[in-house]
Amino acid sequence: MRRGFTLIEVLIVLALIAVLSGIALVAINPARQFAQARHAQRTSHLQVILNAIGQRMADNKGIFAGSFTVNGTTYVCGPVATASTSVTSAMAGNATDETGAVGCLVPVYVPALPIDPAGAVEPQTGYEIRSHGGRITVCAPGVVDETAISDPPSPLCATR
Description:
This protein is of the alpha+beta class and 160 residues long.
């Protein structure tokens, strides 16, 4: 008499194959996982910058530019440019920049300007800011280099 495989044995083998193939897919494509993690961190950074700008504008009756004093320290915000301006670490603290200073955000509204998770060359932070029609847009141009996310990758921007 011939004996075959039982249903339980077949199901166990199929489950093992499914688990091993899942592990293989993750092991084969870690670049996508890291790219998605950087993408999520960039999205968070954009919101941090926009929230800081929004808080500054709320404190200043809807206007971003101007100066203010906190505990004897004067902070200066320049106007946000209509063209894309790279946010630099030199804009932190009391530094001003005619093309769109965000120096007044640090340390009052945000402890430090976020840096792109893929890395940015000093003094660049890897983010850009621009103003259009009373709205502020912050973009992460570094996401365009992330070919593991989508093909072609779309720019990551947040507007408020």
